[in-house]
TrEMBL record:
Record-linked PANTHER family: FASTING INDUCED LIPASE, LIPASE
Gene that this polypeptide is encoded by: Cbn-lips-4
Lineage: Eukaryota, Metazoa, Ecdysozoa, Nematoda, Chromadorea
SUPFAM superfamilies assigned: alpha/beta-Hydrolases (SSF53474)
Name used for this protein in its record: CBN-LIPS-4 protein
UniProt organism field: Caenorhabditis brenneri
InterPro entries, alphabetized: AB_hydrolase_fold, Lipase_EstA/Esterase_EstB
GO process terms (BP): lipid catabolic process
Entry keyword Transmembrane: no
Pfam family, one: Lipase_2
Length: 321
C-alpha cells in the first residue's frame, strides 16, 4: 500500500508540474547592474511563468553547458495557457537528469495571443532582444558555450540570433553584431520553417505579416512551371528553383552551421506546417547542415515540443541521434 501511494504521488507530481520562474533574483540583479534592464527578460506580466533560470543561494555556478530554450509564435517561456505550454516538460526533464536553474534559461518574446500570430516577423526588435539574452546568459554564467533548444518560429529566430549580421526587417534595419556560432555547442531545431510555410504562399504572402517576403515565412509562389498549389507535394521536383523569404534564403546560403552540433526534429503529422513538413519538395524543418534528425510520425506541432523532452536531452548531452 505504501509503495502504491508513492507511485501515485510520483506520477501525479510529474503530470501536475508547478515549475516556477521567473529569472532568479541573482540573475535579475546581475542584469540590472549590466545594463540589460530595458530588455525586460523577466516578463513579470506573466507572473512566475515569463522566464526561467539563474543562480540561487545554493546553486552558485553552472557546472554543465547552459541550455537556452527558445519558444515559438504565441507561446511563452513557461506554460501560461492550455495553448501556450512553454518549456515546462523539457525543463522538468532536464532537472530530473541533474540540470539546475543555473544551467537552464528561457525568456518570453512577444505575447501568447494566438490571434496575433500572423503579425510576428523576424524583426529587429525581437532579434536584438533575443541576441542580448544569449549574450547575457553567456556573460552571466561565464560559460564558453551554450546549447539551444528551439521550437517553431524560435528555430529561425535563434538561427538568426546566432548568425548575427544585418537584419532588413519590416520594422527597420539593424545589425546584430558578429556571428556567435563558435559559442554554440548543440543547436536543436524542432518543427522550424527554415524554407518557409506553404500556407504562406500565394495571396497569404501579401496578407499576413508573418508570411512576408522580406523577413517572414514566404516559401515562394512558384517553382518553374509549378504554381503554389504544388508547394506541399512531395513529388514536385523543385531543386532550389523557387525564390523564398529573403532572410530565410540568406540564412541558408550563408552556409555556416548554427553550432558545433546541429540537429533537426519534426513530425510528419505537424498540423501547423502541414503536408508532412514538405515545402517545395524539401522538409522545411531540416536545419541546413544538420548532423542528424529525428522524425516523428504522429505528433502535432505543439506535441513535437511538449512530448519530446527525452530526445531533446539526448541530443544536447550525447551530441548524436
Ligand atoms: C539593410 O540594413 C543595412 C544595415 O542597417 C543597411 O545598411 C542596408 O541599406 C539595408 N538594405 C536594405 C535593402 O534595406
Ligand atoms: C541552401 O543553400 C545551398 C547552398 O549553400 C543550396 O545548394 C540549396 O539549394 C539551398 N536550399 C534552399 C532550400 O534554398
Amino acid at each position: 500500500m505504501f509503495y502504491i501511494c508513492i507511485a501515485i504521488l510520483t506520477v501525479f507530481g510529474q503530470t501536475s508540474s508547478s515549475l516556477t520562474g521567473p529569472l532568479s533574483s541573482d540573475f535579475q540583479n546581475w542584469l540590472k547592474s549590466n545594463q540589460y534592464s530595458s530588455y525586460d527578460f523577466v516578463r513579470s506580466d506573466y507572473g512566475t511563468k515569463g522566464s526561467y533560470g539563474g543562480f540561487t543561494k545554493t546553486l552558485t555556478k553552472a557546472t554543465k553547458t547552459p541550455v537556452i530554450f527558445l519558444h515559438g509564435n504565441s507561446d511563452s517561456a513557461l506554460k501560461t495557457s492550455s495553448l501556450s505550454t512553454g518549456w515546462d516538460n523539457s525543463i522538468d526533464y532536464f532537472e530530473t537528469k541533474g540540470y539546475t536553474s543555473a544551467e537552464l534559461y528561457a525568456t518570453s518574446w512577444q505575447d501568447n495571443i494566438a490571434a496575433k500570430a500572423g503579425t510576428r516577423t523576424h524583426n529587429c526588435k525581437d532579434l536584438t532582444r533575443l541576441r542580448k539574452f544569449f549574450e547575457a546568459v553567456l556573460a552571466y554564467t561565464g560559460s564558453a558555450k551554450v546549447s539551444v533548444v528551439s521550437h517553431s518560429m524560435g528555430v529561425t529566430l535563434g538561427r538568426k540570433v546566432i548568425k548575427g549580421g544585418v537584419v532588413n526587417g519590416t520594422d527597420g534595419n539593424c545589425d546584430l553584431g558578429p556571428s556567435i556560432t563558435e559559442k554554440i555547442d548543440v543547436f536543436v531545431g524542432i518543427a522550424g520553417a527554415n524554407y518557409g510555410l506553404c500556407n504562406c504562399a500565394g495571396t497569404f504572402g501579401l496578407l499576413a505579416a508573418t508570411c512576408n517576403k522580406k523577413n517572414g515565412f514566404w516559401p515562394g509562389d512558384a517553382c518553374g512551371a509549378y504554381t503554389s498549389t504544388f508547394c506541399g507535394r512531395a513529388a514536385t521536383p523543385c531543386n532550389g528553383l523557387s525564390t523564398y523569404s529573403r532572410l530565410l534564403d540568406e540564412m541558408n546560403t550563408s552556409n555556416n552551421k548554427d553550432g558545433s552540433y546541429v540537429f533537426s526534429m519534426w513530425s510528419k503529422a505537424d498540423d501547423l506546417i502541414g503536408n508532412g513538413d514538405i515545402v517545395w519538395g524539401r522538409p522545411t524543418s531540416l536545419v541546413p547542415l544538420s548532423d542528424g534528425k529525428i522524425i516523428y510520425e504522429s505528433l502535432t506541432h505543439m506535441q513535437s515540443k511538449e512530448n519530446t523532452a527525452v530526445d531533446q536531452y539526448k541530443l544536447v548531452t550525447s551530441k548524436k541521434v
